[in-house]
Amino acid sequence: MDASTAVWLAHDTRLILCCLVAIGAIVVLISATRLPPFLSILVGTFIAGLGAGLPAEAVAKAFSKGAGGLLGEAGMIIALGAMLGALLAESGAADRIASTLLGAARGRWLPWVMALVAMVIGLPLFFEVGLVLMVPIIFVMARQSKQPLLKIAIPALAGMTTLHALMPPHPGPLIAVGALHADLGMTMLLGFIIAVPAVILAGPLYGIWLSKRMDVQEPAELGALFSAHRDDGQRQPGFALSILIILLPVILMLGSTLAKIALEPESNLSLTLKFLGEPLVALSLAVLAAVVCLGWSSGMPKHKVGKVLTRSLAPIAALLLTIGAGGGLKQTLLDAGVSQTISKVAEGAHMPYLLLAWLIAVALRQATGSATVATTTTAGILAPLVIGMGETQSALVALAIGAGSVFFCHVNDAGFWMVREYFGLELKQTLWVWSALQTIVSVVGLVGTSLLWHWLV
User: Fold this and answer.
1) Of 66 and 124, which is predicted with more confidence?
2) Between the CA of residue 147 and those of 153, 208, 447, what are the distances in Å?
3) How far is CA 273 from CA 138, 256, 311, in A?
């Protein structure tokens, strides 16, 4: 072994240990000292960055870059989602949707209906967008049905995150399809076949089981935000209008996806659909439509509509800071070179393609907190190895990567903090609700791809 290899091994070992120490420090600071998550993650970021050999100034810049980038991408979406959710609740539209769904399915069928609704809403949407749309519906459904909050929430979370991991046109699976030159239609078909049992196990079944063992109450501040307070002269919107408003961003983003797949890239129709389907644009239009159709047209005074929109932003301030801090930690770990470290280890591994793809994606997701980074890097590593594979094989490898990218997401994952803050969970509870749920999806994805490989290849 030459000196350069020894230095490489020492640096990589140090980097992995620093990641583990930083994550442990974040957990201890939040759970034992009760420091706010934002401050705890900031401290953990400096532990990881300085321990890995980055200058203090570089750590600070990486944290700012990661936090700013994530908030620039997701912060506005979350804010618009909070506005839309508040208007849906204040106008009574959320109550209308919930009462209609409850009329169609009660009791033991309700978690299954929530999983199905989440899959429909989550098909074209990023997880963050789907979550901010579903949260008010989840709260109102749990309140009206008098069911445990987790029994309603977990199927919805499972429906959205499973499609995000396994179904193009979500970014992760789409990146893997492109890098591995897999067939898009085949990947979507096989992804759906795997997604159905994954949603069933991680959603209704796990939700029913966990809700009997963990009592989670609706958080007071967000619960009040997503409650109706209609004036006497204010009309409750009909179901068709209510569901149209909440599906408007879904329709616009689905149109953007279809434009990318089926239309000429530079055609006027394609450019228009892509613009309207940008998450920021789609949600902005949905909020404006809600202002007009659910607010002014239903008899809500204009000053009250303005107050509802303004009031909706205060409860999400801590959520935005926490998510931004998670983005800062992720960027610091990336700048320290953790993805390259895991890539080097993976290149020397010798094991079946599906298991190798899944394990590399798992390791990268644990280290970086980003499904996109895990998917992109893993697909890049495996691309030379899958040259000459059939379309079914390459599609299954792409799906195995997507499944691995959601394994046991924890404190360096923005979604972890979104779920924690939205549902008012303790750190341990978030691990059970979110990390365990995603682990079920990930493992089912691996098992599903392996079985399909055995049967089809």
Assistant:
1) 66
2) 10, 10, 32
3) 30, 5, 32
Cα separation, 180 vs 197, whole angstroms: 25
Whether the model clears a pTM of 0.85, i.e. scores above it, the answer is no
Contacting residues for 6 by C-beta, under 8 A, at least 6 apart: none
What does R_g of the chain's alpha carbons equal in angstroms?
22
With 0-12 CB in 10 A as exposed, 13-18 as middle and 19+ as buried, what is 34?
A: exposed
Q: Please report, for residues 295, 364, 369, the alpha-carbon distance to residue 337 in angstroms, rounded to integers and kept in the order given.
A: 50, 11, 14
Q: Quick one: average pLDDT of 374-387?
A: 79
Q: What does the pLDDT look like over 199-235, one tens digit per residue? A: 999 999 999 999 999 999 988 777 777 776 666 567 8
Exposure b/e, 322-353, CB count within 10 A at least 16 = b = bbbbbbbbbbbbbbbbbbebbbeebeeeeeeb
